[in-house]
Amino acid sequence: MRRFPSRASSAVICLLALALFVLSCTREKERVLEEGKAPGFTLTDLQGTKVSLSGFRGKVVLLEFWATWCPPCRESIPELNRLYDKYRDKGLTVIGISMDKGGDVSSTVGSFMKEQGVVYPVLIDDGKVSALYGVTSIPAMFIVDKEGKMVKKFVGFIPGLAENLSREIEALL
What we know:
alpha+beta
């Protein structure tokens, strides 16, 4: 004879599954990083020029790891465009780091940038840089201060992201 779980057991199992689902589906997480130097890197932009993080010493840098296929990443573009426009003359650099792979990535990302109106520079990840920064979910944003120290990490997208980032950026400029 086959035994079926009791109603109480089924309810507990459903509640646990629901709790795990809710915890794994957060749209935004924020974590203050330990003070320390941001990992250095050199990547290629869409024109094939090598760009190093060290070249931005003296500026506040907002790094965003993203991909063309990521819906929350698309939502962050207008927010990052606003930040870049508002603060670039005051010493902020926004750098997108595309995690797209395959084929002609530069062409794919370039077309996407044009279509979406991305105004800040974008580099192509080699897979090593995202690993250095511990990126496991995108969009992931890192704020690096003028001395090259990593100050904050934001993962995910929520409306009003620009306002949250503005407070952090203004304190560093």
